[in-house]
């Protein structure tokens, strides 16, 4: 595994909070987890795109990627990263 890959081997059911290996259905309560899994997969892909964009100094792509990541999982860290990229982008102009 390289530093840019994100692997999550377990998930937690949002309904019953059961921790289990990834699957499309909770083995305890039967909740459909396929959307959660797709979001986790998309998030991992977006993280890789973000780091590749930073490496290539492609700040517009890094900003768009972070905006999508913030939609998936809005956190204070995402907001800080977004401000960081915007400041670099404005300094690059």
Can you describe this structure?
The protein is mainly alpha-helical and 93 residues long. It has one domain. 57% of the residues lie in helices and 6% in strands. The chain has 3 helices and 2 strands. It has helices spanning 34-55, 59-72, 76-92, and strands at 10-12, 19-21. The chain has a two-stranded antiparallel ribbon with strand order 1-2. The longest helix has 22 residues, at 34-55. The relative contact order is 0.11.
Helix-strand pattern? EEHHH
**SS field, number of helical segments:** 3
Low-pLDDT runs of 5+ residues are 1-6
What is the beta-strand fraction? 5-15%
**Range of helix content:** 55-70%
What is the strand tally?
A: 2
Largest β sheet strand count, sense and barrel closure:
2 strands, antiparallel
- What is the end-to-end distance? 35 Å
Mean pLDDT reading: 86
- Counting structural domains, the number is 1
Which structural class do the helices and strands define? mainly alpha
Radius of gyration: 16 Å
Question: What strand line-up does the widest sheet have?
Answer: 1-2
- Described by the principal axes of the CA atoms, the overall outline is elongated
Give the oligomeric state.
single chain
């Amino acid at each position: 595994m390289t530093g840019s890959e994100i692997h999550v081997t377990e998930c937690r059911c949002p309904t019953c909070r059961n921790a289990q290996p990834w699957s499309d259905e909770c083995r305890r309560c039967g909740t459909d987890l396929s959307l959660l899994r797709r979001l986790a997969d998309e998030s991992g892909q977006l993280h890789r795109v973000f780091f590749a964009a930073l490496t290539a100094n492609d700040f517009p792509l890094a900003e768009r990627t972070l905006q999508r990541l913030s939609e998936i999982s809005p956190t204070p860290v995402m907001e800080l990263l977004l401000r960081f990229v915007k400041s670099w982008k404005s300094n690059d102009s």
